């Protein structure tokens, strides 16, 4: 449990957040922090991660704690550690001490929570022990798999409104996560030419994150098979002609995330075909970031990436035809089958526990178009939103060998020309971009993404 | 999912294990592998860990798979990956392919499992999604928090009998885990003098484990506050006069664990008081290992450690009186309040999901003595058992400041003499020891534990 980095400014920030929420709803709210999830037996647990909603309003990763908010009034419910726990876990801060740190008006033992649940809304946490308790106390089914309804839905929408744009305290944490992530990627690049398998590069990257007393915000992707979008294998050997795709992000001690991808050549130097495609992806990345500013629709950023990629592939002779028309036909999704990015905050896909409530503007729904269905964010951008921009190019066998897709797009692709690019299985370039009134700020800008600059960092 | 490291010898090993189990029971057995546990939202999961019982008999960490065993006949139940999953997770091995690798006689889709559940025993897995499914299909409450009963209890006892001693394939994995853990500790020692906080040493250690494509078998303890037995904080700064206690172990890709502790001086060199206590703990460690052989009671090993520690503390003038009498009065537990060790295998506390069924010989129960209650293993040792030996000395404020304990033991401790040892907050030395007919083999012997050898590894 982290309690050392607290200050009056934390209390002020938390009060402001709770006040904002109070201005949007007129019912009490109870938020659970959650508890440990067991790994292979009950006492061997995964590292504790507090619920993001709890973290947002309570600020500290307290296990098994509850806050109740009503009209700006904050009650903290948690039990003081048992005397015997001091042997195993040391002297822990007491309830009253924590209450002061987070600006709670009252601190009570957990047993009193049941007296204060009436009419309260909540959000399901992820661990079974806690959502069972939530369901019992509130006397209705509260489950992470069930979309919230009634006042829980109203609460979810209000929380989305508050969390959608970041305050200064959040940005300070997000910048810390970004800075450590930048260092992790540099370490991964520097470790590559002497590494034999993917796992060794991953180790160099995660060591930077662990050394800063942070954790990864999601399971790292460090792979020579970038065409597998969520590849979590690390045993492949590193071959000189291959690319390495690393999607690795840090999370600060109080839960704020970064999410960065770079792709580099294992030998240090891109082949000419790799460089050609890399520059297409980078052009899409740069065009998107140049277009970001408050008021712009994120879907238009996505479509811009699609168009720039299609254009680039036309120029390389891989696509035939006109970029705009290719995108209208979703042909880009043959090679860029995911969305251009997502919200980033306490969660790497921020508030994805609420389904599309955060990602999608009210009354909008996921498209069933091949080229749009995976878009996780569809809203007009607002100052203070943090989004990822992560265009890519992949040769996914499951797509390119799909008989239906292949026949549908057969005449739009120069398959023979494409066969010259077999050493490009997957490239992605991803940065974390803060929306401002005037434009944007790339929080991860300290990590180079120009092909030659990346080559310099890898060396070899 | 790992499928590359399989061979005919794996199939033979798995068949032998299943045959042993079949010889002990006369009812069918269904074992679930389990599924992912969500972290902050359903799609952001903790790294998958298959149930240890499944791993023991099926050999591969397959998510969401089930095996049914009856009289040596093995059925595998799992679904082939959906076509759409190839985009995100790549081409996965198909059911039939996996069935062959693990020596299954039949492979069926999951939907057919419900036709084969009658009269079957099981063991609860840890993730809620799976134990819900177990409970539904078997039509009884199967929960990790509930001790097994009826045929489930019979199964648990049979599994304990089979898993209590390790076969050659298991030992090969356990040796791999031990070897990587040894390297991790050496890396941690080498990183200490240039590190500023605990997290940097932890990073150096875990990087070795990650680079070998392994994971930690439990949350690492790397702390200047060794007196907190399960300390999972890593933010403290490293001060030259302090000790660093590191309890870190690797787990192989198919789940076999190591568990090693070393304590070293942050400056590289122990103070004379630190060295004095270190040598007492090491004497206990060495005496225990010298005594290990088949037939010896593990409780006697524990009591030997207590006695050697008490003797050492008498010699140092900290305890007054006679070592045997001090141990009879549990005075040793003032400074050595935990057990001498535990079983080690697929779980770092092997089979602790079954409570004390594995650790305690039938008809034995935990003692309520202050000096014995935390002993996790109480059986006569048998060839092929792997145990930890981990004596320690700690100055735990919660114990030493406890008014009852302090008055009870007041005349047995020279408190003034003790006050000269304030720079020894916690020391533990832990190795993994295989019981043989003739004696024992220390799997982690490649990691020095003599004070001067540890000083050499730290340097400085």
Automatic annotation (TrEMBL), chains A, B:
A Pfam family it matches: AMP_N
The keyword Transmembrane helix appears for this protein: no
Keyword Metal-binding appears in the UniProt entry: yes
Reaction(s) the record says it catalyses: Release of any N-terminal amino acid, including proline, that is linked to proline, even from a dipeptide or tripeptide
Alphabetized GO MF terms: manganese ion binding; metalloaminopeptidase activity
Alphabetical list of PROSITE patterns matching this protein: PROLINE_PEPTIDASE
GO cellular component, one term: cytosol
Record protein name field: Xaa-Pro aminopeptidase
Organism this protein belongs to: Hassallia byssoidea VB512170
């Amino acid at each position: 449990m982290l309690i050392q980095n607290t200050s009056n400014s934390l209390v002020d920030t938390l009060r402001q957040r709770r006040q904002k929420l109070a201005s949007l709803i007129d019912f009490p709210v109870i938020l659970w922090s959650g508890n440990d999830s067991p790994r292979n037996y009950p006492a061997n647990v995964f590292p504790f991660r507090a619920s993001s909603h709890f973290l947002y309003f309570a600020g500290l990763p307290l296990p098994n704690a509850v806050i109740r908010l009503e009209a700006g009034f904050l009650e903290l419910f948690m039990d003081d550690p048992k005397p015997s726990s001091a042997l195993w876990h040391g002297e822990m801060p007491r309830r009253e001490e924590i209450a002061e740190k987070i600006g709670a008006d009252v601190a009570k033992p957990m047993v009193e929570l049941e007296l204060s649940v009436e009419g309260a809304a909540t959000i399901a946490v992820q661990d079974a022990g806690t959502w069972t308790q939530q369901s019992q106390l509130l006397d209705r089914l509260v489950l992470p798999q069930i979309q919230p309804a009634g006042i829980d839905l109203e609460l979810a929408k209000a929380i989305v409104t508050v969390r959608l744009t970041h305050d200064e305290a959040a940005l300070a944490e997000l910048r810390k996560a970004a800075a450590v992530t930048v260092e992790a990627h540099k370490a991964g690049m520097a470790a590559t030419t002497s590494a034999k398998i993917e796992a060794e590069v991953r180790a160099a990257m995660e060591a930077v994150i662990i050394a800063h007393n942070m954790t990864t915000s999601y399971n790292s992707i460090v792979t020579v098979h970038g065409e597998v979008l969520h590849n979590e294998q690390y045993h492949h050997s590193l071959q000189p002609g291959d690319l390495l795709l690393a999607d690795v992000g840090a999370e600060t001690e109080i839960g704020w995330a970064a999410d960065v991808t770079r792709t580099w050549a294992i030998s240090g130097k891109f082949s000419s075909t790799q460089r050609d495609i890399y520059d297409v992806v980078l052009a899409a990345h740069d065009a998107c970031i140049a277009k970001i500013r408050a008021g712009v629709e994120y879907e238009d950023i996505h479509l811009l990436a699609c168009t720039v990629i299609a254009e680039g592939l036309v120029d390389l002779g891989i696509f035939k035809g006109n970029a705009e028309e290719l995108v209208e036909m979703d042909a880009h999704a043959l090679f860029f089958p995911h969305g251009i990015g997502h919200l980033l905050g306490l969660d790497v896909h921020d508030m994805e526990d609420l389904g599309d409530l955060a990602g999608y503007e009210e009354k909008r729904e996921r498209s069933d178009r091949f080229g749009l269905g995976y878009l996780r964010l569809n809203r007009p951008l607002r100052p203070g939103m943090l989004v990822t921009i992560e265009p890519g190019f992949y040769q996914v066998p499951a797509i390119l060998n799909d008989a239906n897709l292949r026949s549908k797009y057969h005449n739009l692709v120069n398959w023979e020309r494409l066969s010259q690019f077999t050493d490009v299985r997957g490239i992605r370039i991803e940065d974390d971009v803060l929306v401002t009134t005037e434009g944007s700020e790339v929080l991860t800008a300290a990590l180079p993404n120009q092909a030659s600059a990346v080559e310099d960092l890898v060396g070899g």
